[in-house]
Amino acid sequence: MLRGRFLIAMLIALAATLAGCGDPAGSDGITGEYTLRTVNGTAVPATLDPMTSIQAGSLELRRGGRFSFTIESSVPGSGPIPDRRVTTEEGTYTSSGSTISLFYEDVDANAVPVTGVVSGNTLTLAMPFGGAWVFVR
Questions:
Q1: How many domains, the chain?
Q2: How do residues 61-83 score in pLDDT, each as one tens digit?
Q3: Planar angle of CA 64, 90, 134, nearest 5 degrees
Q4: Contact 76, 48 (CB under 8 A)
Q5: What's the predicted TM-score (pTM) here?
Q6: Is the dihedral of CA 49, 74, 37, 136 positive or negative?
Q7: Is 50 within a domain?
């Protein structure tokens, strides 16, 4: 009888330990590092407009509601080789169910928050420029 109680206690402890492991991206199911895969339906690298090409991008959603958004782009340079630029924006985000809203720290960029939808490991943002940007965790 004592051995049975000990075994039950061990199983409960093991279950509690495994439950604590949870989603490695975070307990909210959305935090983590996302990599840009498509821009308005076109695989990256993708042409955003006649002057800009998006080479790569990432979005890190951190616990506590902070984010970091990095985009590598190229624009025509003064010579035959395009200029490559890396831009990083920081800010806060909120989420409700599968909907997410990004609020940039830059006041001009934050005039209208960027919204999106999280579905599993995929995050789709409705960008004010370039349509739907799809990221995968």
A1: 1
A2: 999 999 999 999 998 777 777 78
A3: 90
A4: no
A5: 0.74
A6: negative
A7: yes
Query: Within a domain: residue 74?
Result: yes
For the CA atoms of 77, 133, 137, 64, what is the dihedral angle to 10 degrees? 100
**Would 83 be classed as within a structural domain?**
yes
The sign one gets for the Cα dihedral 103, 69, 29, 14 is negative
- pLDDT tens per residue across span 79-124: 777 788 999 999 999 999 999 999 988 766 556 789 999 999 999 9
**Which neighbouring-strand residues pair with 35?**
58, 136
8 lies in some domain: no
Domain of 57, in residue numbers: 25-136
Token pair recorded at residue 133: 């940007």
